């Protein structure tokens, strides 16, 4: 890439990020509870010195202790849902639920910008930063501009990228661009231990699960390239993999208090075999797993033939989504953050295969790549999921092109709602709020998750 192309690409990247962030902040669409909590913990990390989350104890009680959404009608009779935060004081520190250590690096920014701007800007930057790094990777390998652009455009239509761009912001999503950058430090011809360690540490700080993904990648890379890898990389990669795995076990077993981990990952070999049996025999599990594998298949087919080692690595990194169980979102909830952690690795395998194919001796390779990428875009545009969790090939309106239109139509609605609430409700009020209201009142002083304390 020459200087003009780099400058033009950076200006375009900045313009797109600015436009999307402003669009998201001005619209009332997709403003839910996780958004509010992610704003809250960043602001309070700067103010209180820890990830103070006042609404989380009542939300934990709603979801995991009382399981309100599963209760019969009798549960609600004569239940005033009084709730004292002090009983569940441990849950007030959100770091015990997800180890978002990176927030401590971001907290000083709150002195200059609002949490809303910081969280959304970083999230959108991760989405487009991933595409930008992918484009730079191809261009540095002398792939033509048109094919490089088309390659990252085709990737952007995969559901895990496309459907989540305008959805709720999460710190997990920062791992998309960080994991891609981390892979670049690993495969760089002139290996730099300093860049490797820096990328490893920063990417691992996004969320505790990033530790295990980095460990899986490093182990897989060593095994797949055992005969080719040099001794310096071998020592660093194995050492870093064991370090990440050890820290993950330490944090998840001794520090975190996250009920999802009871079902998210297998806890024994028998549990693992049971999950595999479920996937093979239970219809709903089979459907979800098949749909997930079919969704990622366009990004894996080229690596299977033109970057086989990275195909194996990418597939291994998909295994947590295949055998994990968080109610099904880990397979077909593509707008959720459960699909953010594998995207950087999958993107690298896919782009590496395009690069290898372009440099091969295959006739009409440019035409083949162009047709494959166009078919990939069409595949994702017509990838829909029915109520049986199976694919239906009909046009989906969940992609980011449609969402841009929806958000543009609703621009200004967020501020209108915020002004209405601020004019009607004093900041000192004790509120019992639903998830759809949380993003507007996250900075109020006395919050409970509805229906707790609704009579108080």
List keywords for this structure.
2 domains; 456 residues; two-stranded parallel ribbon; 21 helices; two-stranded antiparallel ribbon; globular; mainly alpha; 4 strands
Helix-strand layout with pairing:
Blueprint: H1 3-26, H2 33-48, H3 56-65, H4 103-106, H5 115-140, H6 145-156, H7 159-162, H8 175-187, H9 193-204, H10 208-224, H11 231-254, H12 261-264, H13 269-281, H14 283-306, H15 308-323, H16 329-332, H17 343-358, H18 365-381, E1 383-385, E2 391-393, H19 400-409, H20 413-424, E3 430-433, H21 435-441, E4 446-449
Parallel strand pairs: 3-4
Antiparallel strand pairs: 1-2
Helix pairs in contact: 1-5, 2-21, 5-6, 5-8, 5-17, 6-18, 8-9, 8-17, 9-11, 10-11, 10-15, 13-14, 14-15, 14-17, 15-17
Task: Provide structural commentary.
The protein is mostly helical and 456 residues long. 62% of the residues lie in helices and 3% in strands. The protein has 21 helices and four strands. It has a two-stranded antiparallel ribbon with strand order 1-2. 40% of the residues are buried.
């Amino acid at each position: 890439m020459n200087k003009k192309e780099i400058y033009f690409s950076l200006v375009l990247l900045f313009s797109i990020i600015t436009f999307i962030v402003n669009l998201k902040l001005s619209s009332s669409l997709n403003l839910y509870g996780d958004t509010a909590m992610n704003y809250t913990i960043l602001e309070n990390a700067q103010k209180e010195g820890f990830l103070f989350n006042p609404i989380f104890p009542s939300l934990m009680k709603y979801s995991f202790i009382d399981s309100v959404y599963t209760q019969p009608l009798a549960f609600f009779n004569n239940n005033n849902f009084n709730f004292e935060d002090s009983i569940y004081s441990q849950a007030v520190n959100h770091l015990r639920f997800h180890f978002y250590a990176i927030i401590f690096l971001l907290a000083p920014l709150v002195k200059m910008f609002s949490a809303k701007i910081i969280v959304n800007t970083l999230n959108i930057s991760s989405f487009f930063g991933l595409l930008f790094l992918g484009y730079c990777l191809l261009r540095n390998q002398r792939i033509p501009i048109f094919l490089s652009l088309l390659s990252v455009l085709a990737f952007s239509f995969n559901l895990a990228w496309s459907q989540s761009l305008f959805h709720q912001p999460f710190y997990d999503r920062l791992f998309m661009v960080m994991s891609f950058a981390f892979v670049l430090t690993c495969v760089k011809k002139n290996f730099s231990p300093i860049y490797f360690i820096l990328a490893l540490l920063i990417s691992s700080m996004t969320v505790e699960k990033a530790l295990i993904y980095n460990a899986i990648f490093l182990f897989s890379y060593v095994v797949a390239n055992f005969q080719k890898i040099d001794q310096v990389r071998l020592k660093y990669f194995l050492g870093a993999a064991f370090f990440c795995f050890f820290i993950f076990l330490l944090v998840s077993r001794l520090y975190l208090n996250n009920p999802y981990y009871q079902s998210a990952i297998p806890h024994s070999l028998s549990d693992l075999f049971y999950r595999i049996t479920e996937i093979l025999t239970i219809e709903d599990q089979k459907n979800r797993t098949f749909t997930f594998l079919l969704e990622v298949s366009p990004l894996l087919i080229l690596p299977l033939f033109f970057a086989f080692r990275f195909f194996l690595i990418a597939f291994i990194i998909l295994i947590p989504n295949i055998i994990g169980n968080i109610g099904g979102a880990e397979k077909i909830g593509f707008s959720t953050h459960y699909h953010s952690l594998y995207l950087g690795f999958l993107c690298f395998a896919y782009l590496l295969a395009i690069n290898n194919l372009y440099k091969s001796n295959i006739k009409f390779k440019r035409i083949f790549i162009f047709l494959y990428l166009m078919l990939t875009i069409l595949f994702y545009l017509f990838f829909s999921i029915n109520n049986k969790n199976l694919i239906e090939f009909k046009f989906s309106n969940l992609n980011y092109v449609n969402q841009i239109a929806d958000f543009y139509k609703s621009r200004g609605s967020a501020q209108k709602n915020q002004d209405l609430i601020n004019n009607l409700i004093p900041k000192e009020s004790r509120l019992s709020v639903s998830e759809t209201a949380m993003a507007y009142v996250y900075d109020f002083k006395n919050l409970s998750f509805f229906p707790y304390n609704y009579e108080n």
